[in-house]
């Protein structure tokens, strides 16, 4: 395998750090072209020293200025560039083979589209960009001939369980290949058994304490409300050319099966492994080969429970809302994604209660018309309008 050069968007985060870990274990095959993140200066300085990227940038202008000074003082060969002006170059440079899209939220959309437009191998963790712009995003993948590999553990699992002939073909007809159902598993989060009448008292610390996975704060809260599974439902629709009826959500509290594909002959293929994102990251980096991810195999003799059940929409109203939005169309999914980002940020900042996240999302969707163009400008307009409406909702509920 010849050496691949990788740009990592969101390098200081949970997925970014796991990506650097896998690359460090496979140094003959991968090098880091650029590191891109938000404001975590210390992590960026240290990662530049260890991984020696050609370029680095932070979206926070003050932090980026300090980054340049710090790397200069260290005699680093890494060039610090401007986040906005140089983003296209960092994603599209002819030396770049692969781009890891792991900025959290809508901020990841434009950089990911740059990578797609240059026909790079795009490893997609940033589900929000696909949820907010699904048709446009997939049209661009097809138009530019980019390779899109799912990093989200469920979608990476589904990808692995799909017939080899249609892996990475985003417009294959599932039934023509014997696929009858995509079984999207979810843990149910930290509140799977908590009394419903105590949900309004849920603290930030409780909400970000995922039972199985170590992740960033936003996705951890999404797992607790199961909006994460709702976003993943929409993500699966686009990645696998599925309809809402083709996808079923199954609660599997142990997070050992990462999702399944059911076939017309009664077979169900599952992908299993430790709840460690280095496995899907290594899968995408090496596809269709395999590399060491540093992840221990499952020990079946030590496994106790292995259970499955249907989700309860009273406990997880955000999941129902997202599935309804998926059926309603593009603007509805752009709206719930934007509202949810605002609501989760407000919850993390202590401005609203846990139960207000659903109220903000549902009321924002109800307050808005869904008549937006599906071009990039229309999507960004819809996203911005939804954030303004969600902010009004947040103000009216603020503690
Ligand atoms: N963590 C996981 O296991 C999984 C994550 N995902 C998805 O991957 C994405 C990343 O998640 P995760 O790694 O957990 O999140 P983290 O919060 O840990 O990391 C987010 C990254 O995005 C950067 N960032 C945030 N805002 C901006 C911005 N405006 N401009 C540029 N960079 C920015 C952060 O930079 P900084 O910290 O320097 O400010 C950080 O590098 C999300 O979309 C999530 O849904 C999907 C499946 C699993
Ligand atoms: C690791 C990953 O892919 C997360 O999206 C994970 O699925 C979160 O767990 P939940 O199943 O609880 O949402
Ligand atoms: Mn997931």
UniProtKB/TrEMBL annotation:
Residues 272-388 form the DXP reductoisomerase C-terminal domain. Gene3D superfamilies: 1.10.1740.10, NAD(P)-binding Rossmann-like Domain. GO terms for molecular function: 1-deoxy-D-xylulose-5-phosphate reductoisomerase activity. It holds the Pfam family DXP_redisom_C. 1-deoxy-D-xylulose 5-phosphate binds at residues 127, 153-154, 187, 210, 223, 228-229, 232. Its cofactor is Mg(2+); Mn(2+). It catalyses: 2-C-methyl-D-erythritol 4-phosphate + NADP(+) = 1-deoxy-D-xylulose 5-phosphate + NADPH + H(+). Residues 148-240 form the 1-deoxy-D-xylulose 5-phosphate reductoisomerase C-terminal domain. Residues 6-134 form the 1-deoxy-D-xylulose 5-phosphate reductoisomerase N-terminal domain. NADPH binds at residues 12-15, 38-40, 126, 128, 216. It comes from the Bacteria. Pathway: Isoprenoid biosynthesis; isopentenyl diphosphate biosynthesis via DXP pathway; isopentenyl diphosphate from 1-deoxy-D-xylulose 5-phosphate: step 1/6. Its EC number is 1.1.1.267. Mn(2+) binds at residues 152, 154, 232. Keywords: Isoprene biosynthesis, Magnesium, Manganese, Metal-binding, NADP, Oxidoreductase. Catalyzes the NADPH-dependent rearrangement and reduction of 1-deoxy-D-xylulose-5-phosphate (DXP) to 2-C-methyl-D-erythritol 4-phosphate (MEP). Belongs to the DXR family. HAMAP family: DXP_reductoisom. PANTHER family: 1-DEOXY-D-XYLULOSE 5-PHOSPHATE REDUCTOISOMERASE, 1-DEOXY-D-XYLULOSE 5-PHOSPHATE REDUCTOISOMERASE, CHLOROPLASTIC. This is 1-deoxy-D-xylulose 5-phosphate reductoisomerase.
């Amino acid at each position: 395998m010849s050496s691949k050069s990788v740009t990592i968007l969101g390098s200081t985060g949970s997925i970014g750090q796991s990506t650097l870990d896998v690359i460090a274990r496979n140094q003959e095959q991968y090098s880091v072209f650029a590191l891109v993140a938000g404001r975590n200066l210390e992590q960026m300085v240290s990662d530049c020293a260890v991984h020696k990227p050609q370029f680095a940038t932070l979206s926070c202008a003050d932090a980026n200025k300090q980054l340049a000074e710090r790397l200069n003082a260290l005699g680093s060969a890494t060039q610090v560039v401007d986040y906005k002006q140089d983003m296209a170059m960092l994603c599209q440079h002819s030396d770049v083979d692969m781009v890891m899209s792991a900025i959290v939220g809508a901020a990841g959309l434009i950089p990911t589209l740059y990578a797609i437009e240059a026909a790079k191998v795009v490893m997609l963790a940033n589900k929000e960009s696909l949820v907010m712009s699904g048709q446009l995003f997939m049209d661009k993948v097809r138009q530019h001939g980019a390779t899109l590999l799912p990093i989200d553990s469920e979608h990476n699992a589904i990808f692995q369980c799909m017939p080899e002939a249609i892996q990475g073909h985003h417009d294959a007809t599932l039934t023509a290949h014997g696929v009858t159902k995509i079984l999207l598993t979810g843990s149910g989060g930290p509140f799977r058994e908590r009394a419903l009448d105590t949900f309004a008292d849920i603290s930030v610390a409780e909400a970000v304490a995922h039972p199985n996975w170590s992740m960033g704060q936003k996705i951890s809260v999404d797992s607790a409300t199961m909006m994460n599974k709702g976003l993943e439902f929409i993500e699966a629709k686009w990645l696998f050319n599925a309809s809402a009826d083709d996808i079923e959500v199954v609660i599997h509290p142990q997070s050992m099966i990462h999702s399944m594909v059911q076939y017309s002959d009664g077979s169900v293929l599952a992908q299993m492994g430790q709840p460690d994102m280095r496995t899907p990251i290594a899968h995408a980096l090496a596809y269709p080969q395999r590399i060491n991810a540093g992840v221990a195999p499952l020990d079946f003799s030590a496994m106790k429970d292995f259970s499955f059940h249907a989700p309860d929409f009273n406990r997880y109203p955000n999941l129902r809302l997202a599935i309804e939005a998926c059926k309603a169309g593009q603007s509805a999914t752009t709206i719930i994604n934007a509202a949810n980002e605002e609501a989760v940020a407000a919850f993390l900042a202590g401005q609203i209660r846990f139960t207000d996240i659903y109220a903000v999302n549902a009321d924002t969707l109800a307050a808005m018309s869904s008549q937006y163009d599906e071009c990039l400008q229309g999507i960004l307009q819809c996203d911005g309008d939804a954030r303004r409406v969600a902010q009004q909702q947040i103000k009216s509920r603020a503690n």
